[in-house]
Write a structure and sequence with these properties.
75 residues; mainly alpha
Amino acid sequence: MLMAHPLVLRNLIEQYETLHILHAENGSPEARQRLEDVTYTLCVSTGTRDIDAALATARRQLGRADVASAFALAG
C-alpha cells in the first residue's frame, strides 16, 4: 500500500483540526466545504472511509515514521 509522506499527513491533520474548530464556531459554507475536502483527502491518503479511522491511521503512520527517523539518526 502506498503511504503519504509524513509531512503531508501532519499538514492534513493540522488543517482538519483547524477547520473542524472553524466550522464548529461559525459554520460558514467555505469552512464546511474545505473541511469536507480535507476529510476526503485524509481518507484517501490513509485508505480509510471515515474521518475517525483516517485520523487514527494517520497518527499511527506518523508514530512509525518518527520511530524510523529516530532509529536512522541513532543508527
